[in-house]
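2-dehydropantoate 2-reductase
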Amino acid sequence: MTAAPWLVLGAGALGQLFAARLAAADDIGPIALRGRHGLLNQLRLQETDGSWRSLALASPEAPPALVIVATKAPDAEQALQQAQLAPGTPLLLLQNGFSVQPRLSAQWPGPVLCAATTEAAYRQPPPAIGVVHAAAGHTWLGDLAGQHRTMAAAVAATLTRAGLAASACDDIDEKLWHKLAVNAVINPLTARHRVLNGTLAEPPLSAEVAALCAEIAQLMAAAKVSPPAAGWQGWVSAVIEATAGNRSSMLQDVLAGRGTERDAILQPLLALADTHALAVPRLRACYHATPA
Ligand code: NAD
Ligand code: KPL
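Tokens:
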């Protein structure tokens, strides 16, 4: 039982999903959800079986015991500043990429857990209200310095009780790089060519996928990041196949005229290329072809 409230910061797709799942569980303390304009008091969630449920959220006075940061990567630091949290408040970061995680791990004066999640959610297009739990996945949690294993295990147990399967791990950096590789290939290509993920399995874009995977494999070897069991290209191809009917998050952002997570996803790879003096022309071209 968690008595102190948890605060979810960012009321978008993943923030609403995490808040709704936690609020729906019986044996978990109060859950608050803060969007750009303050706290929300209720939510609508569509379950993976298609049914809808409405959930009440808390407006707690007590400071949060954990803040789940669910904004896009470029917005995380500003959202934390605006939330005016007590120094030392533990964070759980849900962002894709590998930018905000090392920065906040170095700068935030409290524990910073990072998550690599395969949960999938999207907001209902207006005028409908609510979040759709598109696919149940798994969330891996850990901190980059390996100092908060007990906290990661407790948070993972609570998420799992709430129906968001989660595990603590000692190699969250590796899991974040594996996820980043998927996003670095699928997201910019689908956004540039305005195609569903599955189109990347077919020529001519399948050749582009192979070329990007080869550059990523070279960078990851230089950075001593172990490859996924299927190898970099096998792993990315498996995700393309599993999400063939999806519109990637970057394509959705581009179509909606929103900012993208380009810098959080591609910049860490370009930084590694500079560090190790490796040429990555395809990744650089993707970076320059993608709006920020
Ligand atoms: P989203 O755009 O739906 O939600 C982000 C929310 O953050 C928006 O509602 C925005 O208004 C809010 N926000 C921005 N600045 C804020 C501020 N200063 N204060 C409060 N709220 C603020 O994005 P999302 O799909 O929920 O993704 C969130 C993160 O999770 C991203 O890094 C994404 O890559 C990652 N992710 C998403 C999914 C998914 O299925 N949606 C899956 C895995 C990982
Ligand atoms: O994470 C994704 C995204 O769109 O950001 C993938 C796995 C590519 C699914 O679309």
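The chain has a mean pLDDT of 96.
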